[in-house]
Amino acid sequence: MGDAIKVADSILNPILDTPTSIEVKDLTVSFKTSKGVFTAVKDINLTVQKGEIISLIGHSGCGKSTLMGTISGMTKPTLGEVYANGKEVKGPGPDRGIVFQNYSLLPWLTVYKNIYEAVDSVLKDLSAAEKKELVEKNLKMVNLWEHKDKLPGHLSGGMKQRVAIARAFAINPSILLLDEPFGALDALTKSSMHVELLKLWSLDNREKTIVMVTHDIEEAIFLSDRVVVMSNGPAATIREIVDVPLPRPRNKKQIVHDEAYMAIHDKLLNLLIDKFSIED
Amino acid sequence: MKDLFSVKTLWSILYFFIGMALLGGIWQLISYLTKNEVPTPAMTWEVFKEVIKDPFQNDPDTKGIGTKLLSSLGRVGIGFGLGSIVAIPLGLVIGSNKIAMHIFNPIIQLLRPVSPLAWFPLGLAIFQDSPHASIFMIFICALWPTVLNTAFGASSVSQDHKNVAKAYGFSRWKYIKRILLPFSLPHIITGLRLSIGVAWMVIVAGEMLSGGIGIGYFVWDEGFNGGSVEKILVAIIFIGVIGLILDKCFTFLQKRFTYAV
Question: What is the pTM of this model?
Answer without folding.
Answer: 0.82
